[in-house]
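User: Can you predict the 3D structure for this chain?
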Amino acid sequence: MSSSRVVCIGEGLAVLVAEPGPLEHSESFSRSAGGAEANVARVLVQLGVSASWISRVGDDGFGRYLVRQLDDAGVDVAAVAIDTARPTGMYVKARGAGTGVDGDLPLGESAMTYFRSGSAASALSVDDIACGPADRLIRGAEIVHFSGITVALSDTSQAMTRSLLSVASTVSFDLNFRRPLWGDRVEEASVVLADHVRGSDVVFMGADEALEVFGSDDPDTLRAQFPEPRFLVVKNDAHVVTAFDGASRVDVPALTLDVVEKIGAGDAFAGGFLAGLAKGLSPVNRVRLGHLCAAGALTAHGDVAEVLESSSVTAALNLSEREWSVVHFSALSVS
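Assistant: Here is the predicted structure, written as structure tokens:
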């Protein structure tokens, strides 16, 4: 692929998913692929928007698995670097069975244990994007997307993301604040992340993480604090997303659904919104498409959303405001 409309840059992770119940009782694990930016790329291609993933993986089986998974999904992986000195990052996902046994989680809940310190992707740096296919992809892309996870991985990866703010034509940034990743640098996180918000064109943030990092979860307050991004999207646990396009604001409720697992919903929303932006959808329908993709993650196990068939997506986007507010997500997938 010589170019992609959206380029996603960040760590991919091999995922080992335990059997439901206490992690220490799991005798087998299923394997999958995860990572915030990789998840976004996979949603984009499902929606017909070409996407590339730029990262580093180890010269190991997990690294080859990740690259193959993204490639099989239709994501361009030509600019993924192989690191012969560092391993591919991974995490183990525990899943609750709701038995009440010590160490078990409530039914439907999950918990992650990460093994990413010293990973191949933690060595991402300006050199990874300064020349070759990565540089050509970034300069030719309509949108370059990364998250606060990538910013937090290491000093070199932060230098890379700061470089992207000035190199990419349109930068999409998902706050994705993960306190443990910052370690003893957590006191500087709010300043560093604020710099990235102000330097980006499209910004996603959860109201809860915005409160923790920036001291407010109110969309209008956050907009006043960060007037620089043209598109500012604030998601909250009341299931309403507020999206600013310049000075205009829309508030779009999420769909009613039965949550199976919460992992990956934020990435799926970002992929849907960016696809809507790339396709020239209206402000409301950009958010609706984000909600539809997030619902695909929330109603299934795994990090990556399964997007509805295009006919179902079109029908959902054409619903009236009242119809959207009362429809159940399961009804939209019925042909």
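The chain has a mean pLDDT of 94. The first helix runs from residue 36 to 46.
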